[in-house]
Amino acid sequence: MIFPVVGLSLIAVSICVILKKTNPEFSLLVSLIASVLILGIIFSNFNPFFDVVNRCINGFNLNNIYITTILKALGICYITQIASETCKDSGFSSISSKVELAGKIAIVLLSLPMFESLIKTLEKLIYLK
Q1: Which pTM was predicted?
Q2: Which of 13, 34, 106, 111 shows a CA-CA span of 20 to 30 A to 128?
Q3: In terms of pLDDT, which residue wins out, 128 or 14?
Q4: Rounded Cα distance, 115 and 121, in Å
């Protein structure tokens, strides 16, 4: 998996460096297309990861909400980082910081059901005393 990613990235960077001098808008387009292709390569090889996670959920009788929330948060982190870095590379650091803030807020909102469950569990423990 790593060789196609490295090869594609080196080719894309070479094209971007050449185009940046004459056509910076095409350089950005090549960069975005390469990013999407690299993400496609990465996600196409993600099935073994999900198989292991499913076996862990089923084998250890873990609560599905916790695992899915953690995986969704991890996905939000990666997507936010990719979008933020793309904005920074394009010279829009102010937009990049807004993307990062949006990712943080999305994770907080995603974790609210887990936080509510934790509070309910603590409340039950307190009333047991």
Answers
A1: 0.72
A2: 111
A3: 14
A4: 10
